[in-house]
Design a protein that fits this description.
23% strand; 7 helices; 11 strands; alpha+beta; single chain; 5'-nucleotidase,  domain 2
Length: 251
């Protein structure tokens, strides 16, 4: 009986402690950006730097290989830009080549283009800095009504990277929308080339996750861009883009 009493008391004590344990919640959080540049050189581990130097030299040699020439500096900004137009066009073209049939639209997010492509030499490093993520090319089919909702969101944020689409932003609304020259049809299924991040509805593009069908190509977006630039270079072409009014803005 004494042993049973001890076990009961022990169980009761554990219950009391468990019930009285404090619950913590986060009430405030702050963050700061710490630049990793020459200003931090004095903090570097010199022995580790020496150890890594051969690896760094090998990587630098590979990353500094020139794969093409850019006609002018391409940057990403809204409502449309040289870099977002170029990227969205490559998405659409690459998806068309993959399916061996025309793809209607290319969509990229401006926030996913992490640097510019400067005029002159394009190196492998440039493309890695532009696309540092492991995102893959995805092709999905979206009904016109959901596409319209997505483009209305684009209008509210001032524009995103598109190909195959023309639209005007007026009073934060997308109007005069055409897909490859034809008025947007709310009942039609449109094929869209994008990346797996956006296809998951991320970056507030939830409509892309409401697809009727999806094909995962397994092609890394970075490799897709590298291959496109290399192939254009082999053909003797320079890399260029243009502003063609695909997203017009009425103040």
């Amino acid at each position: 009986m004494k042993k049973q009493n001890i076990l009961i008391l022990l169980a009761l004590a554990i219950t009391i402690v468990a019930c009285s344990s404090k619950q913590y919640t986060v009430t405030r959080a702050t963050s700061a950006k710490i630049a990793i540049d020459a200003s931090k050189e004095e903090l570097a581990d010199k022995n580790y730097e020496t150890y890594l130097q051969p690896v760094k030299q090998k990587i630098d040699t590979e990353m500094n290989i020139v794969i093409g020439q850019a006609a002018e500096t391409m940057k990403a900004h809204a409502p449309e830009s040289l870099l977002s137009n170029f990227s969205a066009d490559v998405y659409k073209l690459s998806a068309t080549e993959y399916l061996k049939q025309p793809v209607d639209i290319g969509i990229v997010n401006l926030g996913g283009l992490r640097t510019e492509i400067p005029a002159g030499n394009i190196t492998i490093r440039t493309v890695f800095e532009l696309m540092p993520f492991e995102n893959e090319l995805v092709i999905l089919w979206l009904k016109g009504d959901k596409l319209d909702e997505l483009l209305q969101f684009f209008a509210k944020v001032g524009g995103e990277g598109v190909s195959g689409i023309r639209m005007t932003i007026a009073n934060n609304k997308a109007v005069d929308i055409t897909i490859n020259g034809q008025a947007l049809d709310a009942d039609k299924l449109y094929s869209i080339a994008t990346n797996d991040y956006l296809a998951g509805g991320n970056d507030k593009m939830g409509q892309l996750a409401m697809y009727e069908k999806r094909v995962n190509t397994g092609i890394k977006v970075r490799n897709m861009l590298l291959d496109y630039i290399k192939n254009q270079t082999k053909k003797g072409n320079i890399i260029q883009s243009k502003l063609d009014g695909r997203i017009a803005l009425i103040p």
